[in-house]
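Section handout 9: paired folding examples.
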Amino acid sequence: MANKKNPDKLLNEWFKDAYSFDFQSTTETPKREYENKLIAWIDVLGMSKKIIDSGKDDSGAEDILTNIRKLGNCVENSCEELLKQSKLEYIQLNDGFIIVCALDCIDVLCRILCEIQWKVLVEIKMPIRGALTAGQMIISNEPKVIIGPAFIKAYLLEDENAIFPRILLSDEVYKYIDKKKINFQYISKDTDNLKYLDYLKYEFDLENNHRNFDYKLKVHGIKQLVLENYNMNINNKTNIAQKYGWIINKLSELKVNIL
């Protein structure tokens, strides 16, 4: 019969071998620190309900995927300028986007966000809501992760205060305005005294005159979209009518009649 080692002796040998290993790494892990960046959080109003309802229809999932792809294309195309300059990064989370860019790009980012709002309204027929702030962020590429207190602030500002299909500006961004570090002209104050990116006026001015803008709304079906969603929900307890009513009010300020 083969000789068996004493179990206690065998355990002692194992521990002795383990403690003899050198656990010190030969390479020092670089320390990651927060950077001050501009950060926007935007998502599509009503998309979550469509995703939930998509399970009731055989073609529902495919329709959702098509819209998600369109949404991604709208954002990527609008961000192309800063992406090429390596001044902007973004992550798509279902129907939402975290967009991070350099502090000195605030004017360009405001324009980009206005363009995204309009493109999504025209191509996907759904409004966008969000928030823009500035603060500390860390961006990791493997895997792609964006974290930091600034993102939490942007997310909460959108979730708790945006309410309507608008992109709000945080107190940190107000400071840029106060110090005249921002030249983007399409920032408006709403009836609740919160400032937001006025993408409808931005698009209105691009068309140069009222008639062209009114025609564009009709051609893309925006007038019909807004009016139908408002009328269908005006007697319901949901806040959908409130959101589309906000769009109607903003268009009326531009002398565009929808009702």
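Moving on to protein 2 of 2.
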Amino acid sequence: MIKNIVFDMGQVLTDFNPDYFIRQYVTVPEDIRLLRTEIFESSVWQELDRGSVTEEDIIAPVCDRLPLRLRASAEVLLLHWREHMTGLDNIMPLVLELKEKGYSLFLLSNAGKNMLHFTHKIPALQYFSGILFSGEVLFLKPEKEIYLKFFEKFSLKPQECYFIDDRPENIAAGQALGMDGFCYGGNVAVLRNALRQAGVTLN
């Protein structure tokens, strides 16, 4: 029986759009592409999510790979991109309904340890019973260790959890440990149907 609904953050509760973040600081298409490549699409971003480095740690190595004209913008971007995060409004009615129905809500997301200071940017999280970011435990989805840390931290049984994530490999990793889930593509009606099929009570 499902008692807990576990959400991912990016593309589920928030709109994670690197180009939008970058455009707050630069507007030239080539500069946007360079910053996206050297920051959000680079190996350093994964290390941020893992928690092995912070944004402050990677400013120098990232800037060393960029033209001089972009270094100041890259530094500001790295330190302030989270300030431009926005919650996805279309998921909020479902979050509220699940809470009202008595389900416990949790977040399991790949994000750096500094994200803990910005949870107020995501309105849905005020209704959550627990939050675990990958940067806190030094493991990333879909590594099985992060799921085990999550279950342990909140004393949850995998078979009583249902996981909503936008990446199929992350859902598959949870299923391998006993936590069923759904790969969310942005259609709340389809997600509602999947939850009902899993036995979750919804209007």
